[in-house]
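Continuing the series of single-chain predictions for the mutant panel. This is the parent chain; the variants come on the following pages.
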Amino acid sequence: MMKKRKKILCITFIVLFISIALYIVALSIRNYIREKKMMEVYQGMKVTWYGDSLTQMYFYCGEVDRYFGFDGQNSGVNGSLITMINGSSLCAPTRMNCGDEEDIAPDSAIIFIMAGVNDWIYSMPMGDVEKTFNDTQKGILTNDTFAGACNQMFYYLKEHYPNAQIIVLGTHPADGTYAKLFDGAGGMYNKLGLTSVEYGDTLCEVAQMWGIDNINIGRKLDWNSDNIMEYCVDGIHFNQDKGSVEVAKEIIKFMKKMNGVI
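Parent structure:
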């Protein structure tokens, strides 16, 4: 009786082991097929990287372009805020189509957006996400708060580039100590007591209300005041060898997940 039970347990274990092995093999094959198809679709695809100096430097963007084979357009402008302060603000339609090389490519299949750090630096008022969003009119509201400007930015992007997929990356963790920001006080909190990541939270929350894909990169990166200089040259701008690579990895991981590649 005991031998029979052991035999049954042994057979059960073998069957279970084979089943798990076959599942892993099948999963690997599925992922290989999906990734191959994804790479074929992305090869040569026109994408635009829309943002501020972090985008203009093109370090993290270039990493992603090379991985997927994107034909990338650099639409980053140094010092750009989302909040409306001038024509270079990211919510302004004149900024999206400004008539020079920083234009968003009209044939973009994907528009990636990383921004918000300059709004954090200048301590722009956050605003109320709910009060700056209207299900009917949506973006034609206030643009003098960060939430309102995010809303307007998405309105015009959707209007001007209806065929493009918009992917919001968010705002990375930043520290103003090394750049002597906030009247020399520095730190990860601006004059309103807000972190750059909190601006990213709002940016991604508004994107979510528009049904726009978002990563919220600031919540993915384990950067803080103790280790920020490992990733940024001045507490704000990514270095090329580590910070940009880490950001690019998160974007690549998101794109794979979006395409069902685990």
